[in-house]
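Researcher: Here's a chain I'd like modeled. Treat it as a single chain, no partners, no ligands.
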Amino acid sequence: MTLAIMQPYFFPYIGYWQLIRAVDMFVIYDDVNYIKKGYINRNSILIHGKEQLFTLELLGASQNKYINEIKVGSNHQKLLKTIAVNYKKAPYFKITFPIIQDILLQDEKNLAKFIGYSLKMISNYLSIKTKFIYSSKIEKDNSLKGQDKILEICKKLHTDNYINAIGGKELYDKEVFKKEGIELNFIESDIIEYKQFDHPFVPYLSIIDIMMFNSKEEIQKMLERYQFV
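Model: Modeled as a single isolated chain. Structure tokens:
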């Protein structure tokens, strides 16, 4: 079985979705510490032709708390208004906006489950069949850290192929995984460009931007544009 383990990100960029699509099971890594100024509750969209951060409000967020111990705030309507104003003339706005609206207006207040719902909803839209599980539901030695904890999860789920984002090359050792009978690969995305109104292209924006400017079929082709290293 192929497996990926990642912290839940808020409407992440295309590479995150390529990782989800590439595996049989995706572990939402929710019982690790929240990281401020990361992508757990913020991302970037296009505003007036430029990259602009948008942030999901949190209650009591702290790097001393696990992601699944943090609650979502109440700026959902403000975020929806910002998205609507800036993308209402995008070619796939009428298809995409109801999906984003459903996600942002959900009743769930637990941050990990809130984002988990968004990952599942967008995966459904893109016909990604990957199974999801929360790491907090897996019995394991929670005193382990870093690579050792990832290996523990892999073994608990009987993984033979662990796939990680390209940034993991500095964190994980292929030989260590190999000794445990697990093949380790890193996914490297191709450079993907598409038309964003009449502005110069801005890369690495949220999946929201991609969904607003591209059809489901076009996005599915983008999801195949990567290689393993």
